[in-house]
Amino acid sequence: MSQPINQLPWEHADWFDRLSTWIEQQLASHQRSMLEPIQLVHQRPWSAFAQIQTNQGMVYCKAPAPAFHYEAALTQALADWQPDCNVPVLAIEPTQAWILSADAGTTLRQLGQNLTQLEHWYALLPQYSELQINLAQRVPALLALGVPDRRLSQFPTLFRELLNDRQHLLIDQELGLSSSEYQQLQALAPMVQAQAAQLAEFGLPETLTHEEIHENNVLYGERGYTFTDWSDCSVSHPFFSLLVTLRAAAHWLKLDEHGPELQRLRAAYLEPWTRFAPRSQLDQAVEIAYRLGMINRALSWRQALDGLDPAQTQEYQDNVAGWLQDYLTANTA
Q1: Of the four listed, 53, 114, 164, 293, which is most buried by Cβ atoms within 10 Å?
Q2: Do 301 and 215 lie in a common domain?
Q3: Secondary structure of residue 153 in the 3-state scheme
C-alpha cells in the first residue's frame, strides 16, 4: 500500500499557474492562441481536466493522479502507433504527466440517450477489437511504459494481494464486505486460479485493455471514432473490456443486459477475434472473462484509491468491495 498523499497535485496553491504557463507555451509552439481563459472542468481523485478555446479549435488538458502517471506516455505512444483512433496529442509533460490534445469530436454521451446510438456501437466495437489485436505485439513496450500488468498468469497472486488489503475491503463496515463474504472470497482463490487457467487455454493474445469503454470515453467526429481516457487500463485479457461496456450500454440506453441489442454488441466486438478461435469458443471465453473482469475492476479501484486520504475519496470507497461482491454473486448464485 502506498504512503498517504496529503494533497493531490491540483490541490497545491501554485499548480494551476504552473499548468497554465505550460499550456500557453505549448499552444504557442503549435501556432495556437487562446481565445478565452483556461477553464478547469473538473478535479477528481484520479485526474484534473481543463479545456481551452483556441483560434484553431478546442484543446484539452488532462492531469492524471500519481497512480495513473503512465497515462501520459501511453497516450503519446497510442497516438504514434495508431493515430486513426487515438487522441491527437499536441504535447505531454513527462514529469507531471500532463496531456495536451486537440479536439477529436463529441462524446457519444453528448450525442444523446437514444437507441440510434446503437449504430455507433455496432461500428466502433470491431474497431476497438482491431486496436487491441494490433497492440498485442506491443505488450513489452506497454509494460515498460508502466501500464499495470494483470496478465492471467498474475491473476491468482493479484487476487490474494487484494484480499490481504483489508483497508479497501471495508470488512464489516457500511457498504463493505461482511466477514462472511470475505471468508467466501478467500475460499474462492482456487476457483480464480482455475478460471484464469481456463481462459488462458483459449489462446487469445493478452493486450492493452481499456476498462471503461463507455459513452463518455468514445469520441465521434470527422476522423471517425476516437478512444480516450486510458487511465483505467491494463495489460490483461482483452475480453475484460466487455464487462463495463455492456453494462454501461444497458444502463445508458435502458436496455436489458441479456437482450438482443446487447447480444449484437457482443457479437460485433467478437467478430475480429474469430481469426483466433471459433465463435463458440469465444462465447465461452467471454463468460469466464466477464467474471474475472469483476476482480480486475476491483484491482483498478484499489489502484485509484490507494494512498489517498479517505476524506478525498469517500463517495468511491465502496467500489473495491462492490466489485468483489459482484464476483462472489456471479460464482455462488
Answers
A1: 293
A2: yes
A3: helix
Amino acid in the structure at residue 81: W
C-alpha 56: how far from chain center: 29
Question: Which amino acid appears at position 125 of this protein?
Answer: L
Same domain, 90 and 132: no
In this structure, the answer to whether residues 77 and 117 fall within a common structural domain is: no
**Torsion from C-alpha of 245, 219, 22, 211, nearest 10 degrees:** 10
Predicted local distance difference test score (pLDDT) of residue 145 = 98
The model's pTM? 0.94
| Domain boundary residue, one of 103, 123, 140 | 103
Q: Supply angle C-alpha 304, 307, 313, rounded to 5.
A: 60
pLDDT along the chain (333 residues), means of 10: 67 96 98 96 94 97 96 98 97 97 94 82 97 98 98 97 94 94 98 98 98 95 95 98 95 89 96 98 98 98 87 85 98 84
Q: Encode 149-166: b = buried (16+ Cβ within 10 Å), e = exposed.
A: ebbbebbbebbeebbeee
CB 220 within 8 A of CB 120: yes
Query: Which one of 86, 103, 120 terminates a domain?
Result: 103
- Which pLDDT value is given to residue 56? 96
Chain-centroid distance, C-alpha 320 = 15
Three cell numbers, residue 224: 471517425
User: Is-contact 332 180, C-beta < 8 A?
Assistant: no
Residue 219 lies in a domain: yes
CATH code: domain of residue 54: 3.30.200.20
At 5 the pLDDT is: 56
For 185, other C-beta atoms within 10 Å of its C-beta total: 24
Same domain, 111 and 86: no
Grid coordinates of 52: 481551452
- Expressed as residue numbers, the domain containing 252 is 107-332
Collapsing DSSP to helix, strand or coil, 112 comes out as: coil
pLDDT of residue 211: 96
